[in-house]
Specification:
CATH class of the largest domain: Alpha Beta
Order of helices and strands: EHEHHEEEEHEHEHEEHHEEEH
CATH topology of the largest domain: D-Maltodextrin-Binding Protein, domain 2
Structural class: alpha/beta
Number of helices: 9
């Protein structure tokens, strides 16, 4: 019997799920895709709609898991909120793509844009950090899937976009010139660049499969980044960034950015240590010190 993977219908989501499906097929399994439309997809397509609750890009996929219509759900890890429904968990992780944000439409990058330039993003996290780096430019709310946002850029809705490098790479958009943003200027969303497999925790076959597909370093980094999200209480619409990276000595570095609601600026910290998951609490304590 084929393993059913729930996925969003967007071109990027289908491409990403295809990558996961190929890895599962390489282990001798048949795979079928179950494309679904989420509340987040409908919000992205409606320029006037208010943002839904946390988990807007995952709830329909989670329902398919709980109903037994799917065996696993494939998500961009950054879309998964801090809390999940009872009985579900992250059972597998795909190797990380480039986790950085990039500027598209400005050959010289963010700092080369002229004063008053319009920079498009639908992410509060990106908007907050761009605003702090360049308070003299205008943030324009641009939503939609990657091709739609690129079309809006081409039509003049903005002078530049800030989007995820991983999305462009996984769509094979090598034709799109981009200028990467350093992590200390635009700290990525927790989980950005990772694909996460969500499944039922009581399904031993799927949890074993997910574990077999997962590298220990990737798991440690994603757990550290999500621990920051849990500590802050954020979801994919919060101004929270966290990026964990392995160090040459076998330890880890964790960079964190948080801009609290109503604050005029965010706070940052970088911590290092041998146990990735222990770094989240240290980072949050560091943020409190920096914010005082």
């Amino acid at each position: 019997m084929a393993i059913v993977l729930a996925t969003r219908r967007s071109e990027l989501a289908m491409a990403q799920t295809g990558l996961v499906a190929d890895r599962i097929r390489a282990r001798g399994h048949d795979v079928e895709l179950l494309p679904l439309t989420t509340a987040g997809d409908r919000w992205s397509a409606d320029g006037d709609a208010a943002p839904p609750d946390k988990g807007m890009f995952v709830k329909e996929l989670e329902r398919a898991l709980l109903d037994g219509a799917a065996d696993l759900a494939v998500h961009s890890a950054k879309d998964i909120p801090a809390e999940m429904p009872d009985g579900l968990g992250l059972v597998g992780i795909s190797p990380r793509a480039d986790a950085r944000d990039v500027v598209v439409g400005a050959p010289g990058g963010l700092l080369a844009l002229p004063p008053g330039a319009r920079v498009g993003t639908g992410s509060p996290r990106r908007a907050a950090q761009i605003e702090e780096a360049r308070p003299d430019i205008e943030i324009v709310d641009i939503r939609g899937n990657v091709p739609t946002r690129l079309e809006k850029l081409a039509s003049g809705s903005a002078d530049a976009l800030v989007i995820a490098a991983a999305g462009l790479d996984r769509l094979g958009r090598d034709d799109v010139a981009r200028a990467p943003l350093p992590v200390d200027l635009s700290t990525p969303a927790p989980g950005q660049g990772y694909l996460a497999l969500q499944g039922r925790l009581d399904d031993r076959e799927m949890t074993d499969l997910g574990a077999a597909l997962t590298d220990d370093v990737d798991r440690a980094c994603l757990e550290a980044e999500r621990a920051v999200l849990v500590a802050v209480g954020g979801g994919c619409r919060s101004a929270v960034g966290a990026h964990c990276a392995p160090l040459a000595d076998g330890g880890y570095s964790l960079a964190v950015y948080v801009r609290h609601e109503g604050a005029s600026v965010g706070v940052r910290t970088v911590v290092e240590g041998q146990i990735a998951t222990a770094l989240a609490a240290e980072a949050i304590a560091g943020l409190a010190t920096n914010d005082s």
